[in-house]
Amino acid sequence: MSANPDHILSQTATVDAAAIEPLPNSRKIYVQGSRPDIRVPMREIAQADTHTQNGVERNPPIWVYDTSGPYTDPAAAIDVRAGLAALREAWIEERGDTEHLTTVSSEYGRTRLADPALAQVRFAHVRKPRRARPEQNVTQMHYARRGLVTEEMAYIAAREGCAGEFVRSEVARGRAIIPANVRPAALEPMIIGRSLLVKINANIGNSATSSSIAEEVEKMQWAVRWGADTVMDLSTGADIHETRGHILRNSPVPIGSVPIYQGLDKVYGRVEDLSIELFLET
Questions:
Q1: Antiparallel, parallel or unpaired: β 201-204 and 192-193
Q2: pTM for the full model?
Q3: Residue 273 carries which DSSP code?
Q4: What is the DSSP string of 177-212?
Q5: Eight-state DSSP code of residue 106
Q6: What percent of the chain has pLDDT over 90?
Q7: For position 212, what pLDDT does the model report?
Q8: Is the dihedral of CA 12, 18, 186, 37 positive or negative?
Q9: Residues 61-87 as b or e (16 or more Cβ within 10 Å = b)
Q10: Contacting residues for 82 by C-beta, under 8 A, at least 6 apart
Q11: pLDDT per position as a tens digit, 74-102
């Protein structure tokens, strides 16, 4: 059952007001990083005063890092048909070690793009994906082992309340990871590691009997609003490829998936038809 195209576009053109209004007793603020385009979102939480026998004790606000992206920023104009702004585009471009793909790299992806029946569910505003230039390694671990504190690492340091060099050293030693490759340019960098803040994952996904692209995007928006650092798309229903495209391009956090689910979708649920080549491509 394919998603209703009217439901996709009309329901995702604007975001549910309840999902973007400021959280109670708090406001969104930004911490300035090492350059003007490193602005790290935080949430400033107001504390009530403490009343003691000696009078009123004023409690300062508490700052916590904010995973909600632009969705809780009153100044942000959001159109999920266009996707989030490419926060990391300039950082990636300046490193000079990537290039744009001239065509979709997977045969499956090219087939989906050529299918006119999918035009109404396809994400329309796709930036050209990037890949590493020949002989280049563009992973954050590679940069860390070369001694570079990337913009992503500087962003994370401000978010975690530590030094950029500490972030670099943890990644270089393999004790932390930054799930931020060169393709999701809208991603707000985050880190997972034993010496860093605990992270929370949320699972979403459609099924063969319910949900639509609009609903999956809305689930992601609510997940990041309530503090999910990462989101897993566990879709098993129709149009997994297109559903994930809409989620990815509107998510400020890393999106994971289970390839076997989409692999089975590609062969219409016939396990015996799932070759190792198709699975690895997925």
A1: unpaired
A2: 0.88
A3: G
A4: E----SS-TT-----EETTS----EEEE---SSS--
A5: S
A6: 62
A7: 87
A8: positive
A9: eeeebbbbbbbbbeeeebebbebbebb
A10: 125
A11: 888 888 888 999 999 999 999 999 999 98
